[in-house]
Amino acid sequence: IARKLASSEYGVFAMDYPGFGLSQGLHGYIPSFDMLVDDVIEQYSKIKGT
After folding, report:
1. Which PANTHER family does the UniProt record give (predicted)?
2. Predicted TM-score (pTM) above 0.70
3. Which residues of 29-45 are buried (b: 16+ CB within 10 A; e: fewer)?
4. How many angstroms separate the CA atoms of 46 and 18, rounded?
């Protein structure tokens, strides 16, 4: 899906959350949901340029 969107000139971003993707540790385990939300907000702000 990401490649298709990118080829149609959409910006595509992905995050490797702790416990998912290539990160180390227990797969699927999120030690702090609040920290996860803060990380998503921070990345969104960077993408939007604010």
Report:
1. PHOSPHOLIPASE-RELATED
2. no
3. eeeeeeeeeeeeeeeee
4. 19
